Amino acid sequence: MSEIKQLSVQALEWTGKSLRVLDQRLLPEQIRYHEYHDAETVAEAIRSMQVRGAPAIGIAAAYGVVLSVKRHYRADWRERVERDIQLLAESRPTAVNLFWALDKMRAALAAAEDPLVVATEAALRIHQDDLEANLRMGELGADVLGEARAVMTHCNAGSLATGGYGTALGVIRSAWRRGLKTVYAGETRPWLQGARLTVWELAQDGIPSTLIADSAAAWLMKNGALDWIIVGADRIAANGDVANKIGTYSLAVLAKQHDVKMMVVAPMSTIDFSLANGNGIEIEQRHPAELLPDCYLQKGSLVQAWNPVFDVTPAQLITAIVTERGVVLNPAEHGGVRSLKT
Ligand code: MRU
After folding, report:
1. Which residue CA neighbors atom 10 of ligand 1 most closely?
2. How far is the CA of 114 from the centre of ligand 1 (A)?
3. Angle at Cα 211 formed by Cα 217 and Cα 136, nearest 5°?
4. Residue ranges of the domains in the chain?
5. Nearest C-alpha neighbor of 184 from the set 147, 125, 232, 231
6. What are the pLDDT tens digits along the chain (342 aa)?
7. How many CB atoms are closer than 10 A to CB 67?
8. Which residues, 6 or more positions from 179, have their beta carbon under 8 angstroms from its beta carbon?
9. Is CATH 3.40.630.10 the right assignment for the domain spanning 138-340?
10. Catalytic residue among 84, 234, 272, 311
């Protein structure tokens, strides 16, 4: 395998000797790719959110390992590559796909005779498998939606956040082809993944959407306009608790109140079977500057910010968890996602 065939917008592109990363901080105004040749700059691209979204972070890190091997494999390569793997692992804490992908790369390299060939094949495989998982989840999720006419999504769980097609947006893409009528996107403060990325990504595929302020979600549901909320995930614990973009928990609580169903779409690489429940998930706190105007960032300012960028939705509030291995309906009543473990 030498390249990944893309179906829609592309967050990551492996050129054969470098990683091209679409700078998502600049969307939708500018489409600019940066080209990276080493693990350090890939780790920085993840930390600074040029590339974001759980599966895409994992894929970028896998290519970061390839770049590390490429740079170091002539001498003492194992030690140096392991140092780069550590660096990549420190780039963001919540999405388990990052650690999953790094573990896969480590395992592939363990017995490798030709490390560069083995690492490249392993990274391309992680990328391709994610794309295929998304296509499968798209169909499975659309089956669950059935005749639903209106859905809302949060953050961006699309091609931009994955190896292609998307998780939540993959389901929306598949359902759209089957007659889904209305897609709402929450703007997703403070980083505006919904406003800057999701509505743009859907428009690239000719799918119309309606943007709402995050604070309008309750009123939208009250007006009876929604059948399902569909989101991705950064980490799912064994009992079905789901860490995802901050605001997902509020949407799930609101959905319960208004009889709206809640779907989580994520590949198996997002499930952390080592965690019995969501309490052990590290929630990333980002810099107050992402929330506060400059005037409050001065020394001695009386205004601070609390900026957790993920939250944990208890399994009890989730109607369906869709993975490429199958769907778990009402996970809280069925032992979480444990039935998916092979
Ligand atoms: O901070 P981000 O933009 O990386 O957060 C992304 C999300 O929370 C997504 O919903 C999640 O990673 C799933 S992406 C398929």
Report:
1. 232
2. 34
3. 90
4. 12-131, 138-340
5. 231
6. 666 676 678 999 999 999 999 999 999 999 999 999 999 999 999 999 999 999 999 999 999 999 999 999 887 899 999 999 999 999 999 999 999 999 999 999 998 789 999 999 999 999 999 999 999 999 999 999 999 999 999 999 999 999 999 999 999 999 999 999 999 999 999 999 999 999 999 999 999 999 999 999 999 999 988 999 999 999 999 999 999 999 999 999 999 999 999 999 999 999 999 999 999 999 999 999 999 999 999 999 999 999 999 999 999 999 999 999 999 999 999 999 999 997
7. 24
8. none
9. no
10. 234
272 classed as catalytic: no
Residues lining ligand 1, CB < 6 A?
52-55, 95, 155, 157, 161-162, 167, 193, 231-234, 244-245, 309
Helix (H, G, I), strand (E, B) or coil at 233: coil
pTM of the model: 0.97
DSSP classification of residue 162:
S
Gap from CA of 94 to ligand 1 centroid (Å) = 10
Domain 12-131 top-level CATH class: mainly alpha
Residue 264 structure tokens: 């989580």
Please report the atom of ligand 1 found closest to the CA of residue 232: 13
